[in-house]
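Annotated sample (chain length 269).
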Amino acid sequence: MPLVWRRSPVIMTSFVVLSLVSFDATYAAWSRGHVRAAAKVVTSKCDRSKFKVILDVGHTAEARGARSARNLPEFDFNLRLAKRIEDKLKSEGFAQTSLLVTDGPARPSLFKRAAAINDSRADLALSIHHDSVPDSFLEEWEFEGARSHFSDRFNGYSVFVSHDNPKFWTSLRFARLLGRQMKAQGLQYARQYAQPLMGRYRRKLLDKKVGVYRYDQLIVLARTRVPAVLFEAGSIINRDEELAMESTERQDMIGVAVASAVKEFCGSR
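Output written by the structure step:
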């Protein structure tokens, strides 16, 4: 008995050590394989070179949208910012990003741009706009000898989605990502759309943290069959914010926000 007892710990210890070594080797091999597999999944989630983004420039050269506090047309702001965003997205590897610039009168151009987005089979459509206010909120002032209108009462960006879009939930997901990225840049959203004072312009606030609103009647959203979001980048009827929207610094901030949202959206599909 005592002899057997002395030998047993050696035998058992050797067995345990060999078992642990074998387990560690097996686990290490599994871990390496698992990490490689996980890496493949992560890198294959988003092929930026194939992800197609359409940047719809709001309004047209014939129907130029709202006028800023300094009498500049919204269309010019939209086109300039859209080009800036296009450059940023392409620099991030989204080579198939393209601008959609539509011509013609206001309402017919809306159907034209929705058809163009559908024909493009884009992965995402983002319509670029700049905000104003209802006429009842406008005040008069004179700028460079010309009679002008302004409203410094409201400011901020806003993001809109349409429940009539067949990709509503996907659109909402991107809208929230964009709102979060705008907030991360230190920018605030326009809160007036949820208030009764807006009357027929009042919209349902879907995300009170980042400024996502529901606006079902927007043709460029409701008539498209791809995820689509309308983005009011800021208020150009607000005199201070108009100057900010003209600056390259603000345009670059927005470009970073959009690119970050697109990257996360592409990677989570």
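Annotation: The helical segments are 2-45, 74-91, 106-120, 168-184, 219-222, 239-246, 248-267.
Annotation: Confidence is low (pLDDT under 50) at residues 1-28, 34-44.
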